[in-house]
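We store sequence, tokenised fold; for instance:
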Amino acid sequence: MRKKIVVGNWKMNNTIAESIELATEIAEKVGTGIICCEVGIAPTFLALHEVGKVIEWSDIRLSAQNCHYENDGAFTGEVSARMLQSAGCSYVILGHSERRQFFGESSAIVNRKVKKALAEGLKVILCVGETLQEREAGITESVITGQVVEGLDGVSDISNVVIAYEPVWAIGTGKTATSAQAEEVHASIRATVAGLYDATAADHLRIQYGGSVKPSNAVELFSMPNIDGGLIGGASLNAEDFMAIIKAAC
């Protein structure tokens, strides 16, 4: 059985002091011995080191929100997978819709990042999702399939990959895909992965849902057979709400 995974993506929120405070509160609530699901948090780059020290005694995995596809070089403002690994990160989030939408990241760029992160020993959360216009045009499945295929191009082993389905129209809008809508896309992703690899790899792959997940809808979403937890945005900035979502995955 796949172990669910719940990761809080803090995005561009919280100073270092605020991040330490929130991480401390979450770590105290999560503690150790969590066997029902895997838990992670992704603070800003500036807070990674300090948050890592705060949560190192707990079962919380440290995640980064992005990385570059080169180890070193003249890439002002960028952070490499090698640096993240040395900072204690277990995971890195790649291909988030906000990176694609606001910073022009193509699936080809995301794919380079995925391969570099895996090569450096990080686990990858590969994000995919369609816009409202694409959903209304009836091309959700083809868009998501394309992002999965391109994102995993040249990746021979997906044992350290998690895919997060985040419909762009549901991120930070308060709108949430219904459990049936989310399950349909998750099932399609799993079928795509089975075609790329095999049924065993697809069955073991964890696929998260992201997009305005809250304590009030987490139980229903996570009860779907192909939804293996969530990539949580706004609700992860509140320790009580985040803990309620974690419990919903258990």
